[in-house]
Amino acid sequence: MSVSWATADPPKAVPAGRPISSSSAWRAALLRQTIGIAGLAVLLVLWWGGTKLIAAPGSFLRHFSPLEAVTTLGRLATNSDLPIHVLVSLRRVLIGLGLALVIGVPIGLAVGRSALLNSATSPSFQFLRMISPLSWMPLAVMVLGVGDRPIYFLLAFAAVWPILLSTAEGVRQLQPAWLRLAASLSATRWETLRHVVLPGVLAHVLTGLRLAIGVVWIVLVPCEMLGVSAGLGYFILDTRDRLAYSELTAMVLVIGLLGFLLDAAARGLNRLVTHRH
């Protein structure tokens, strides 16, 4: 049975360079890590200088010093509901990303396969993609009510576009030889999809997932300021209402750290899949 998947011409072969020894690769990785830590140290020094040296005595900015933020963060981690708020936010992110994957991957496969479908949907997708997810907040609340459901919708809407477009691009870049081999073995459409197409586009899907994580993490905090009683966004509003400035700064650190860890996990998964392939 013949299988028709839209593909691009195979890329030209690139001559292989000299193999890199494990010790050289280790030294290069250590150098990159050292440079990254040095960059973070410079950022921390600039933060401290801005709040302690440049700000005048008694200035409002002195409430946001890094020392007070780190001290407060240690207290919040052990003597507050911060872990619960973190888990609630992570649960919302995972559900939003899951919905985006369920919607974006199948549509991306269909769009990448069919040039006609791509031409028909590309203007609409590009139009919707450029609308800020936060623009839908009032409509989401009116239709879905307050609580978690409008947050899931907004997060999924924000995450679906990078996943969909990356999946479609992955289908277009499939090696034609793989599809010809599947056709020569009389593979059915389902067999070709399962054993050729999905493994071939997996790296692109993970790249789209990493981009989606960055977008979702940015959208999450303002979404959680919308009629909920838990989450990082809610906790930030609570610290503002209580004028707890050191706690507010500590929450900014938590959001940045969690976002960094989520992105690192996505990068690690992408490298693992690429290495296995």
UniProtKB/TrEMBL annotation:
GO cellular component terms given for this protein: plasma membrane
UniProt superkingdom: Bacteria
Matches recorded under InterPro entries: MetI-like, MetI-like_sf
Positions of transmembrane segments: 30-50, 93-115, 127-145, 151-171, 211-237, 243-262
SUPFAM superfamilies tied to this protein: MetI-like
UniProt KW keywords: Cell membrane, Membrane, Transmembrane, Transmembrane helix, Transport
Main location: membrane
A biological process from GO: cellular response to sulfur starvation
Pfam families per the UniProt record, alphabetical: BPD_transp_1 (PF00528)
Domain ABC transmembrane type-1: residue ranges: 86-266
Family matches, as CDD domains: TM_PBP2
Keyword Cell inner membrane found: no
Entry similarity comment: Belongs to the binding-protein-dependent transport system permease family.
Protein name: ABC transporter permease
